[in-house]
């Protein structure tokens, strides 16, 4: 005669409540533990432990203004230093008045030239950007579907699937279609259009700051050899500092950049001084 189903269930339940200690059965009635117990921990949940990764510094966005700053400063420094050395190579006067006057004239003329040149250049760039934006604005009004497909194909060319690219293009166009086309099709950031006045002022200040170094170094020394040494030493130190600062802001090697800028400055000074000395000797000045 078989065991009733109810009795089988009772026996099975009782057997599950028996635990084994050191391989031997124990008849103590202990509470059954679940087969897949979840370990408890005092740590915070996983999502609380995850922190946002630190962003690595990027330097490419600094390139335009960094280039203008370094170019203007080095231009003023090398130009005025070479100009004063060239005048001293011909005049060789103890007072140094001619050298200082030529330095002041070169400083004013160079700063104005840099400002005007930068203003005209950046203004032309801004005009081109505005012209492209006007064309794009008209195309968006006349053929929005064509422009949407064009934007989609741009994202497809960057690696997105057509479906995802279409979705991205539609979402961005819904927010600001002109801004999306300007950024991804024309490469123009509407939030950072070129500013001619700012560029002109920055170039003039950078040139004047660089040119003021040799001018101040040579203005208060009357002795010719000491004045020459002071101008060259101050210019060399400033060139190295310009190179190091530019490299630091741009994430490049400081010593290589300083040596590169210093070598270029020395070469310009040597050429200017040498040519003017030859002219003095040739014409018996």
Automatic annotation (TrEMBL):
It comes from the Eukaryota. The chain crosses the membrane at residues 199-221, 228-251, 257-276. Keywords: Ion transport, Iron, Iron transport, Membrane, Transmembrane, Transmembrane helix, Transport, Vacuole. InterPro entries: Ccc1_fam. GO terms for biological process: intracellular manganese ion homeostasis. GO terms for molecular function: iron ion transmembrane transporter activity; manganese ion transmembrane transporter activity. It catalyses: Fe(2+)(in) = Fe(2+)(out). It is found in: Vacuole membrane. GO terms for cellular component: membrane; vacuolar membrane. It is a multi-pass membrane protein. Belongs to the CCC1 family. PANTHER family: FE(2+)/MN(2+) TRANSPORTER PCL1 (PTHR31851). This is Uncharacterized protein. The lineage of its organism: Eukaryota, Viridiplantae, Streptophyta, Embryophyta, Bryophyta. The gene is LOC112288346.
